[in-house]
Every structure is written in C-alpha cells, then in structure tokens.
C-alpha cells in the first residue's frame, strides 16, 4: 500500500499532540487545553485545524452526540514515519541512512536506546 503523503503544520501537530495524550475531546475541550481562557476566535481556529486534520485523515469525528468528539486516526509513530520518509525523499534521495547516521552521531543515546536500535537493525529485512 503506498504511503499517504500529508503535511501536518505545527498548529495541527499541537492539536494531534493533545489528542494522542487525551482523547476523545470536543472542540471546546481542545480549545481550553490549547488556549486557556480562549476566545471565540481561538475556538474557530481549533475548529478549522480539526477540519484540516480530518480532511488529511489524521483525526476522526464521532457525531453521535451534539458536541462532536475527536480522536486521532493516525498513531504518533506512523506520522513520524511518514514525516521522516518525506525528509528522506526531499534531502537524501529517498535513503533513510543519512538521517539515521546524523541522528545517532549527533544525539547522545541512552544504553537502552542503543540496544533497541541495534536490535531493530539486526531484525531489519
């Protein structure tokens, strides 16, 4: 199945972050979390961000109650994978190797993270 290419803006990502940690949520609940004491304008902003995310297939809406409930329809790990593959296509001719080499050489990994990375490499097809 081909990978769906979707760009998620920073503001949309902020909404997804809340939903990954606390879902389902209504627009009002999301607005209260993202913009404490939020105005009508900020409520409309969250509403628009949710519509964009729904159009991109990143959130789903439960319309069974008068206040619609929103939940993520993409896992954080899946979105990370899509975004990394897009960067690899754009900057590295599709190869993830330069990205991985950069990340592992410039970031101090914990022992458990190194072990997990080695295991993943060993198990890769």
Entry keywords:
125 residues; single chain; 6% strand; 6 helices; elongated; mainly alpha
What is the average per-residue confidence, as pLDDT, rounded to a whole number? Answer: 90
Strand content: 5-15%
How would you characterize the largest beta sheet? Answer: 2 strands, antiparallel
Shape: elongated
Q: In which range does the helix fraction lie?
A: 55-70%
Instruction: Label the structural class.
Output: mainly alpha
| Strand adjacency order, main sheet | 1-2
Number of strands: 2
* Sequence stretches where pLDDT stays below 50 over 5 or more residues: none
Query: What distance separates the N and C termini?
Result: 18 Å
The SSE string, one letter per element, is HHHEEHHH
Alpha-carbon Rg, integer: 18 Å
Number of helices: 6
Please give the oligomerization state of what you see: single chain
Please describe what this structure looks like.
This protein has 125 residues and is mostly helical. Helices cover 60% and strands 6% of the residues. It has six helices and two strands, in the order αααββααα. The protein has helices at 10-21, 27-34, 40-55, 76-91, 97-106, 111-123, and strands at residues 59-62, 69-72. Strands 1-2 form a two-stranded antiparallel sheet. A hairpin with a 6-residue loop joins strand 1 (59-62) and strand 2.
């Amino acid at each position: 199945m081909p990978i769906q290419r979707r760009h998620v803006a920073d503001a949309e990502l902020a909404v997804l972050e809340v939903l990954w940690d606390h879902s389902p949520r209504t627009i009002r609940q999301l607005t209260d979390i993202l913009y404490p004491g939020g105005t009508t304008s900020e409520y409309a902003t969250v509403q628009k961000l949710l519509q964009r995310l729904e159009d991109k297939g990143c959130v789903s809406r439960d319309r069974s109650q008068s206040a619609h409930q929103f939940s993520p329809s993409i896992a954080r790990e899946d979105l990370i994978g899509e975004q990394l593959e897009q960067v690899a296509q754009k900057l590295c001719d599709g190869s993830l190797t330069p990205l991985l080499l950069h990340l592992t050489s410039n970031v101090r990994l914990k022992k458990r993270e190194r072990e997990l990375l080695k295991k993943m490499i060993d198990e890769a097809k």
